[in-house]
Amino acid sequence: MSRRQRKRSKLSRIKRRTPPGAMPGTLVVDPTAPRPVINVIEYDGSSCREEAGVSVEGVASIVARRARGAASQGDGSSSAGVLWVDVVGLGDASVVQRLGELFGLHKLELEDIISSHQRSKVEDYADHLYLVMRECTNDKELEQDQISLCVGRGWVVTFQGKAGDCYEPVRQRIRGAKGRITVSGSDHLAYAIIDAIIDSYFPALEHLGERLEELEDETTRSPSNATAEAIHDVKRDLLTIRRAVWPAREAVSSLMRDHHALISAETRIYLRDCYDHLIQMIDVIETYREIGSGLMDMYLASVSNRMNEVIKVLTVIATTFMPLSFIAGVYGMNFDRESSAWNMPELYWRFGYFFALGVMALTAGTMLTFFYRRGWIFARRRAERSHNDHGDKDRSG
């Protein structure tokens, strides 16, 4: 299966699985999605506790313990630290639903979490925020994944469809107590995750930029059908990233503009940096799209020029042989030499054959010389020779 066929098959699977007319909040999982794996990180300014492969019951015990600690302190949500629950895989709707019950998530949120075709957005609920972002990675080909963030006071729950994410720098900062993340609240953790997702776009864009440079050289030197397919694939990848970046800009702008109770003023300052990165990426994407369109035009022009060169060579050959065919046709006529001495007397000459060949060669040479002087043949070689001669003169000078 070719790369284009693989992409088409992926696009065909991006569809709404909830049947038409279903009750809001109906959870229909992808049968090919992996089963959920829950990873938990709980930290504060002085300690960090990390556990992988936690069950829903384990998460429930952690939430209950934190609730008891907050109740004993009166208002200890911030002093109790931050709880980060990361769910990898959405192949079990019951796990997602039970986690939603633990953290008070709305059933429409759960439906959006299960549905992997959501655009980036921010929804404000009574006691938490729901965010959707799209992660884009480019290893062998462009891959994207929907990241859902539920941000409450003192906790963050993230959902992703597959293993392998861009959170590892955030985890390293938490483990090493680097920066303000361990002394800040859940809003700063949400910012760090959003920033990591946005930063994942840059390597994908750099890869596409390098691919465009390669295609530019290929289009100039020796374009082929594979070149056109590669240009089309790059343009499709750019469109995919564009569909992820533009809504993300609106979502980050909403977090900056709207005064959400869970987002502090200091975190909004950090969100400006995310917004600047998104604006920068939008400029790069639009530039790359224009380059891709220009490459397609260049490819069509190159193919047309090659076709014109072929037609020109064939035309020169046909034009050269037209007078030769005329001469051969004249001397191939059957006239009766005995009826008149003027009926093609050169046929009886001793050197008549060589005379006919000489006339043909002289005619062909005259025509080729005329074509050459007019620049209709060997024009590229003359230009390259002239360029090399000028270069040699410049170096000698």
- Note the main sheet: 7 strands, mixed
Q: State the CATH class of the largest domain.
A: Alpha Beta
Number of helices: 11
Q: What is the percent of helical residues?
A: 55-70%
Strand content: 5-15%
Structural class: alpha+beta
Q: What shape does the CA trace take?
A: rod-shaped
CATH topology of the largest domain: Beta Polymerase, domain 2
The name of the CATH architecture of the largest domain is: 2-Layer Sandwich
**H/E topology pattern:** HEEHEHHEEEEHHHHHHH
CATH superfamily of the largest domain: CorA soluble domain-like
Q: Over the alpha carbons, how many angstroms does the gyration radius reach?
A: 36 Å
Strand order, sheet with most strands: 2-1-3-7-6-5-4
What is the CA-CA span between the terminal residues? 57 Å
Average per-residue pLDDT, rounded, comes to 83
Q: How many beta-strand segments? A: 7
The overall number of domains is 2
Provide an overview of this structure.
With 397 residues, this protein is of the alpha+beta class. The protein is built from eleven helices and seven strands. It has two domains: 274 residues, Beta Polymerase, domain 2; 64 residues, no CATH class. The chain has a seven-stranded mixed sheet with strand order 2-1-3-7-6-5-4, with helices on both faces. A hairpin with a 3-residue loop joins strand 5 and strand 6. Helix 6 packs parallel to helix 9. The chain is rod-shaped. About 2% of the residues have low confidence.
